[in-house]
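Changelog-adjacent note: as of this version, every example in the card shows the full chain rather than a window. The one below runs 195 residues end to end.
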Amino acid sequence: MTRAPKLGGWTRGGARVVCVLALAAASILAPSHAGAVALPPAARALETGLEQVGRGELRWLGFKLYDAALWSGARGEAAIDGAHVLSIRYARAVSSARLVALSLDEMRRLGLADEDRLARWGEALAAVLPSVEAGDTLAGLHRPGQGATFWHQGRPSGALGDPELARAFFAIWLDPRTREPGLRAQLLGLADGAP
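Full-length structure tokens:
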């Protein structure tokens, strides 16, 4: 019986297995790049001339919640004057009901609608915002004055025909009074190091 040569207490074969396992673990645990969020091909087909304006990530108490990216035909504040796509890749599972509740809370905080209108908007949002799992992407194409179309994992998830609701939804991230002004600046390409 022959023995494998020892390498510092490890056999050559054992060291190879450990290296392979370490590389596999590193690739699984490697942090994702902020903004590595894809534009749904259907959005590009509906609206030509879209280029990525900016990207960023949202963290809360050190925990990553999502990566976001904005596509438009213009940069800076002008990016939201015309058609634009906001795409969010979630780092955690979130139910449809929670996505709707959080959206309505932010619209309420921004003073964008009264309670009766928010109740109606909640029903419409529930129809287009599905539950998401970690790694899922939701994207919305906003056409100001017309409405919005949404995709989950690149597949259509619904549309908002109410232009005011669509404007209010995108305002959560893009209004100057947003709760996350740093993320807004990154999305609009106004922050240092923006693409």
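Structural remarks: The longest strand covers residues 51-60.
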